[in-house]
Design goal:
- This protein has helices at 2-34, 41-44, 50-57, 78-90, 97-123, 130-133, 135-140, 147-161, 165-179, 186-195, 199-223, 225-237, 245-251, 259-280, 287-301, 310-320, 324-351, 360-386, 400-405.
- It is mostly helical and 412 residues long.
- The chain has one domain (12-387).
Length: 412
C-alpha cells in the first residue's frame, strides 16, 4: 500500500512536470506559430519546426499520401509518415490550416512526453523528473515527430529489463518502424541474451521484432516502393550535415574525402568499442544501463546530429545514471546541448539573411564542444560501470582479457 501511494505521488509530480515542460516549449514556438513561420524569423527566435514546414512541403495539406510521390515522399519511416498523413486528414482547412496542423501535433507530442516520463518513472524513479526539467529537451520538443518513436523505444527497454521479451520485441519493432534509429539497440540486446545463455530467447526476439517491422512496412513497400525507399536513400547519399563533427571540420577547411566510407568505418569502430566494453563488464548489464552509450556514440560520429536528437538521448541517459558524480557529468553534457541549441539557430539566422548571428567558425567550435561534452559524459558512465565489483557467484562470465588469452587454459 505504501509503495502504491509513493508511486501515485510520483505519478502526479511527473505528469505536472511534463505538462509544464510542454507549455514552456509551446510558448517558445508560439512566436513562429503567430508569425506564420517566416524566414529568418524562425531562426532568430529559435522556433523552427519541421511540422509546419513539411505540412505543405510534402503536400500533406493536399491530403496526399505520405509515400505516393517518388521524389517528394516523406523522408521518414512508415509509421512517422502515417502519423503525419493521418493528422493532416483531420486538420481543419483554410487560412489557419498550417497553424491548426502544428497545434494538433503539439497536443499529441505533449501526451507522448507525459507517457515517456511515466515510463521513465518506472525504470528510474529517482531521476525521471529530470526529463521534463532538461532545458534542451524543452527547447526541442516540437521540432519534429521524434517522441512517437522515443516512447516505444523506452517502453521496449522497460519491458526487456522486466524480461517480457516478446512484448519488448514488438515495442522495439514499432519504434524502428517509426524512426529506425532504435535498431541499434539490437546489439546490446543480443549481447545480454547471449551472455545470459538465452540463445533461443534471442532468436525469438529477433524473429518477432523483424516480423513485426516487416508487417508494418510491407504494405508501403508493395504499393509505393520508391516513396518508401526515399528515407533510406537520403540517409545513404546525404553529405555531412548540421551538428556533425564532419560538417564542423568542413567549415574549418578540413575536408574529409570519401565521407560515406569514413562514417561507415567510424560506425564500425563505435560498434566494436561497444562490444569490447560489454565484454569488459563484470556483470551482465541491463539494457537500460548501456543503451545511452551506444546510441550517443553513433550520433557523435554520424553525418548529422540534429538539435532534437537530445530528445532521444536524455531518457537513455537518465536510466543509465547511478550516482551524483554521474549526475554532475549529465549536467555538463546538458549545458553543451543548451549552448549548441542557441548556436545552431543563430548561425542559421545569419545564413538566412539576418543582420546578426553566429559566424561559421564559431558554430563549428560550438558543435565540437557539444560532441566533447557528450563524449565526456559517456566516459564517466563507462568508467563508473567498469569499476563495479564483480559478482561473488562462480559462474560469472569472463571479461575480454580472459576470453582472448585464457580460453585455452583447460586444454593440455
Amino acid at each position: 500500500m505504501r509503495a502504491l501511494k509513493q508511486w501515485s505521488t510520483l505519478t502526479k509530480i511527473l505528469i505536472s512536470l511534463a505538462v509544464l515542460a510542454s507549455l514552456l516549449s509551446f510558448a517558445k514556438f508560439d512566436h513562429c506559430r503567430n508569425a506564420n513561420w517566416v524566414t529568418p524569423d524562425v531562426d532568430i527566435h529559435a522556433c523552427y519546426s519541421d511540422i509546419p514546414a513539411l505540412f505543405s512541403g510534402r503536400a500533406l495539406d493536399q491530403h496526399q499520401w505520405a509515400y505516393s510521390s517518388n521524389t517528394n515522399a516523406v523522408e521518414y519511416p512508415v509509421l512517422t509518415g502515417a502519423v503525419m498523413w493521418a493528422i493532416a486528414q483531420v486538420t481543419p482547412s483554410g487560412t489557419d490550416a498550417t497553424r491548426n496542423y502544428f497545434d494538433i501535433n503539439a497536443i499529441l507530442i505533449a501526451l507522448l512526453l507525459i507517457g515517456t516520463t511515466l515510463i521513465l518513472g518506472r525504470i528510474k524513479p529517482e531521476f525521471a523528473y529530470l526529463l521534463p526539467l532538461s532545458p534542451a529537451v524543452v527547447a526541442s520538443l516540437y521540432i519534429n515527430w521524434d517522441l512517437w518513436g522515443i516512447i516505444t523505444m523506452v517502453l521496449a527497454i522497460y519491458l526487456f529489463d522486466k524480461k517480457k521479451f516478446e512484448l519488448s520485441a514488438i515495442a522495439l519493432a514499432v519504434s524502428i518502424a517509426t524512426k529506425f534509429f532504435p535498431v541499434l539497440l539490437l546489439l546490446p540486446i543480443a549481447f545480454i541474451l547471449w551472455r545470459s545463455n538465452k540463445v533461443k530467447v534471442l532468436a525469438k526476439y529477433l524473429l518477432v521484432s523483424s516480423g513485426v517491422w516487416l508487417a508494418i512496412n510491407l504494405p508501403v513497400i508493395l504499393t509505393t516502393p520508391k516513396g518508401w525507399w526515399r528515407f533510406y536513400q537520403l540517409n545513404l547519399d546525404r553529405p555531412s550535415d548540421w551538428g556533425s563533427i564532419w560538417y564542423s571540420l568542413s567549415i574549418l577547411n578540413i575536408d574529409i574525402r570519401s565521407l560515406n566510407y569514413v562514417t561507415l568505418l567510424s560506425l564500425l569502430a563505435v560498434v566494436t568499442a561497444m562490444a569490447i566494453y560489454l565484454l569488459e563488464l563484470h556483470q551482465t548489464p541491463t539494457l537500460a544501463s548501456v543503451s545511452f552509450i551506444l546510441l550517443a556514440g553513433v550520433l557523435c560520429v554520424g553525418k548529422v546530429y540534429s538539435p532534437q536528437y537530445i530528445l532521444w538521448l536524455t531518457p537513455l541517459a537518465l536510466i543509465a545514471l547511478k550516482n551524483k558524480k554521474e549526475l554532475f557529468a549529465f549536467w555538463i553534457w546538458q549545458a553543451g546541448e543548451g549552448i549548441y541549441h542557441i548556436a545552431i539557430w543563430q548561425h542559421l539566422a545569419l545564413l538566412s539573411g539576418a543582420q546578426f548571428g553566429l559566424p561559421g567558425v564559431g558554430y563549428a567550435l560550438v558543435s565540437i564542444l557539444r560532441i566533447a561534452t557528450c563524449a565526456y559524459f559517456m566516459t564517466v558512465l563507462i568508467r563508473s560501470s567498469l569499476k563495479d565489483p564483480p559478482p561473488q557467484a562462480q559462474s560469472a562470465h569472463s571479461r575480454l582479457g580472459d576470453f582472448l588469452f585464457e580460453a585455452g587454459a583447460s586444454y593440455p
